[in-house]
Amino acid sequence: MRFRFCPQCGAVLARGPVAGREREHCPGCGYVAFHNPAPVGLAVIEHQERLVLIRRTVAPLAGYWAPPSGYVELGESVPEAVVREAREECGLEIALQRLLGVWSHPEVNAVIVAYRARSVGGALAAGDDASEVALFAPGELPRQELPREPTATERWFLPLIDEVLRA
Ligand SMILES: [Zn+2]
Asked: Which residues make up the environment of ion ligand 1, defined by Cβ < 5 Å?
């Protein structure tokens, strides 16, 4: 994302070195446009001894099977966001068990924080951003190929899905 005008004072932004990097900044008020990736929480959920995947309806990887995930919102912690996303996307109440890891990529505007979790209630149902939900035995996970013209995010996210499901 690049800004043309200053969101604070409306002046045209300039581009030049600020704090060790080329950045858009405002000659009028001193505003600097820092571009920070947003945190995304993801849950690898065990339910009835299998893993819960949803079929995504939104980019990146629309139409692909993936664990429930979504952006953390202001007002909630990362673990709270993961629990909320699971409830919204697959209908299950979950308990987080352990952090699987944190993934980022210099070309992608997101940082993924993945947890292992188990279901503790609710009922399996495809919800927001999901056309289907299904259970997969760990040895029978779907094999998925990259789209013909993958974005940088998709090239990063698809192998990451594989990695977290096998972690
Ligand atoms: Zn300004």
From this structure: 6, 8-9, 11, 26, 28-29, 31
Distance 25 CA to ligand 1 centre (A): 8
Domain ranges of the chain: 1-35, 38-166
Compute, in angstroms, the gap from residue 34 CA to the centroid of ligand 1.
Answer: 14
Fold of 38-166: Nucleoside Triphosphate Pyrophosphohydrolase (3.90.79)
Contacts of 14 (CB under 8 A, 6+ apart): 24, 25, 26, 27
Asked if 88 is an active-site residue, the reply is: no
Q: What pLDDT was estimated at residue 167?
A: 84
Question: What percent helix, strand, coil does the chain show, rounded to 5?
Answer: 20, 40, 40
* DSSP-assigned letter for residue 166: H
pLDDT in tens, 115-164: 999 999 999 999 888 899 999 998 899 999 999 999 999 999 999 999 99
